[in-house]
């Protein structure tokens, strides 16, 4: 069984603990207006490479010394890594056998049984929460958030280690009603999960231009005080956030 990988990035420090190798899977069922990895969305990406479980593991193992010295590991991102669940599952099992820490960076959009099976094999989930309103979620990502919120609740119920990540998009996900909805959801969970806010940066704008794809939020900029406002909302509810 082979998997389709768009890119492998080494020495990453924002995708989980320690120094990490991030493997970007090709394919994503969402189509977020702000996607920084827009070329990873189609399942048949032009720069995609096909790997067997062993050949991908070989790439990951090249960085083993950095994982060991920094308590790092490998993060599977994308695209959406759960679009290739069988391959991902096999790679996770192979990493587990070799004591390599694994994290899954996911939109949460996957069938529940697949999500739970993958969660049971990984060490950590980096679970993205974008928009609380289903109507907005459909508008800005192309899919409903019902399955995502349901997965989050199930994962929490079953005590899987998670970090919740909120991409803060100006005029979209940084709105007061959205943040308030997300705070209420986080507060309703059984466990306390660290919350990471991912500030917006406009680097993707150039990429869209190069790829000749219209960038729907062209010109959007994040003001410092907006970021601060969001941080304060979490603080008011005694939720510590990392930015
Ligand atoms: S979930 Fe992530 S990879 Fe998929 S479209 Fe949205 S931002 Fe891009």
Description of the structure:
With 243 residues, the chain is an alpha/beta fold. It has one domain (2-242): Alpha-Beta Barrel (TIM Barrel). 39% of the residues lie in helices and 20% in strands. The protein has a nine-stranded mixed beta sheet with strand order 3-1-2-4-5-6-7-8-9. α3 links the parallel β4 (73-77) and β5. α1 (53-61) crosses α3 (85-97), α3 packs parallel to α4 (112-121) and α4 (112-121) crosses α6 (146-157). It is globular. The termini are far apart. The structure holds iron/sulfur cluster (SF4). The site of iron/sulfur cluster (SF4) has 12 residues, from loops.
Strand content: 15-25%
- Could you tell me the radius of gyration in angstroms? 17 Å
CATH class: Alpha Beta
Read across the widest sheet, the strand sequence of neighbours is 3-1-2-4-5-6-7-8-9
CATH topology: TIM Barrel
The portion of residues assigned to helices is 25-40%
Ligand inventory: iron/sulfur cluster
Q: What's the mean pLDDT score? A: 96
- The span between the termini is 38 Å
Order of helices and strands: EEEHHEHEHEHHEHEHHE
Low-confidence stretches: none
What is the overall silhouette? globular
Total helices: the number is 9
Report the CATH architecture: Alpha-Beta Barrel
The H-level CATH homologous superfamily, spelled out, is: Aldolase class I
Structural class: alpha/beta
Any idea how many domains? 1
Q: Please describe the biggest sheet, giving its number of strands, its sense, and whether it closes into a barrel.
A: 9 strands, mixed
Count of strand segments? 9
């Amino acid at each position: 069984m082979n998997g389709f990988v768009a890119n492998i990035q080494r020495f990453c420090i924002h995708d989980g603990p320690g120094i990490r190798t991030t493997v970007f899977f090709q394919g994503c069922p969402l189509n977020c207006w702000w996607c920084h990895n827009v070329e990873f969305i189609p399942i048949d990406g032009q720069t995609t490479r096909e790997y067997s479980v062993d050949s991908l593991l070989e790439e990951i193992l090249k960085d083993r010394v950095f994982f060991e010295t920094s308590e790092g590991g490998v993060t599977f991102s994308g695209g959406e890594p759960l679009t290739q669940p069988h391959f991902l599952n096999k790679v996770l099992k192979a990493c587990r056998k070799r004591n390599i820490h694994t994290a899954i960076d996911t939109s949460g959009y996957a069938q529940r049984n697949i999500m739970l099976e993958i969660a049971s094999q990984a060490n950590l989930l980096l679970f993205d929460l974008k928009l609380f309103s289903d109507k907005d979620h459909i508008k800005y990502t192309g899919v409903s958030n019902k399955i995502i919120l349901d997965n989050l609740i199930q994962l929490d119920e079953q005590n899987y280690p998670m970090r919740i990540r909120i991409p803060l998009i100006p005029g979209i996900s940084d709105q007061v009603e959205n943040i308030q909805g997300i705070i209420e959801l986080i507060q309703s969970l059984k466990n306390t999960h660290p919350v990471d806010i991912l500030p917006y940066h406009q680097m993707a704008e150039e990429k869209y231009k190069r790829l000749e794809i219209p960038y729907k939020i062209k010109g959007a900029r994040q003001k410092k005080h907006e970021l601060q406002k969001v941080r304060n909302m979490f603080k008011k509810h005694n939720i510590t956030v990392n930015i």
